[in-house]
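User:
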Amino acid sequence: MSEPTVKAKGLPKSSRRRSRELALQGIYQWRLTSDDREQIEKQILAEKGMGRCDVEFFSKLLRGVLTQHAELETVVATHLDRALDELSPVEFAVLMIGVYELTFHPEIPYRVVINEAVELAKTFGGTDGHKFVNGVLDKVAAQVRVVEVRGDSGKIVA
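Assistant: Predicted structure:
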């Protein structure tokens, strides 16, 4: 996976976006190797450019996803058109981050969560993977953020 650090317009990325990128890389590594969460976190903190990263947010994301992965996988699986193990490791990691934020970080607007996940999928995922991520997270948001989604659209989204 590449490690882009600048937006297309040449502006620096936000510290939270960089945190999400590094969390994605940690979840990707965990998915492929089943390494210990603490080992992955220490490795990323030691090796990656943490200068523009919100380290606390990165740690919350990585720890949260890996601690709550069974619950998050259950939520995601209900909105997939295929088995969870058929997802690419990148799609899996992006969806886990998105579902974790939607579920455990209500202070972050659902549209921001979805947009950030779509951007991760565009940067690290395959062609059109971002469309898949967007569709799944829209459904998850309608399930776990009912009031917010309803208030945003004026109706219940299913």
